TrEMBL record:
Gene3D superfamilies: 3.90.550.20. Coiled coil: none annotated. InterPro entries: AfumC-like_glycosyl_Trfase, Nucleotide-diphossugar_trans. It comes from the Eukaryota. It holds the Pfam family Caps_synth. This is Capsule polysaccharide biosynthesis protein. GO terms for molecular function: glycosyltransferase activity.
Amino acid sequence: MDRVPPYPVPEGLHTIPEDQLDLRPDAEVDYDLLHPAPVADEKNIWLFWDGGFAQMHGYAQRNVRTWHRRFSRQGWAVRVLDRVAGSPLNVGEYLDVTDPTVFPRAFRDGTLAGSYGAQHTSDLVRWPLLLRHGGVYVDVGLMPIGDLDRLWRETVGDAASPFEVLTFTMDGRDLTNYFLASGRSNPLFLRCHKLLLELWSADGGKTTTDGMCNSPLLKDIPKMVRSVSFEEDGRVYGPDEVSVMLSDYIIQGQAATLVMGLLDEEDEDGGWDGPRYVREHVWASDYMEASQLINVLTAWDGPKAFELMSLTLPRDGEAESDGQRQAREIVEGCLQRSFAFKLAHGLILRVLGPTLGSLWRANPGSDHVPGTYAHWLRYGMLHWRQESLPTRWDFAVVEPWKRGPLLRER
């Protein structure tokens, strides 16, 4: 591990003993990541990158290494699956990629296309992995902060706990697909995946998600936010168009929203009450506080976040500038209050412009310069542990979005 200047430990955190961390050089950690052990239990941290770990951007590799360094000694196996022929981490080593009940035709025959085909390939891997093997699925752009092992042990990993799913939520009627956790064969994710496959099978088999949010199977739920517009190549995309774009892009989230709000008395397992299941069995925290705090504190201004995180801390005797104060509040806030931080990419770049993640990608190594606030954040993510878990969302009693069978059109 790199030698670093002594960073201040924010209040409410304590240092993790070194024997609980894997602090070996990157090359040794990478060897373990590229040569995974067979699945032994449900303590799996799953990620996906089409070309494999070695082809990932440096800042994303550092995220993955932190998941491993932080949690492997608590029994977690970290695996970055891929679609590389002959790779021991190929998805086909863990799932039957020829099974139509697991993957849609476009995935099976390699025709999945579109501007965000890589993202949707990744989406299609998540629920099958959790249903087959259990564990946690995280995006490669998710930076770990909170104590995943403790949260798991007190919820999904505890047979006496009522909680069967871990995630983040925006409004209590949805989930974020960049952090999903459950044991094997989870009933919520089973139905979510069944609906997602049905959406992909429409019209003889879709090759993109374009227009998928307008499926009659999703007519009971609202589309994504309608208050954003943007201009691109001289054309203005209005709020309704952006809403459809976002809903198609995050079609996995749309499927989950429907299932979470579904009341299906004809369900083959004796009925399905989605709102009740969520209230009783889903442990979720507010996605803004838990995973988007840098964006909240910079008003979703990616260049500003990049500038602040690139600043160096004051040297001894130097007064703190306004920018350094803002950057310090970001780092302290994330380490004290957040469970993770999601680096945004994909469609969001068209809508909001450059993000911290895209600027780290464009400026290799800028997230890892000793003495900067970005490096302080990364150091704290690995070496310090929060004294408490995040607050669980208080799920209200709500009316179902839909009454009737999951795959029957209204």
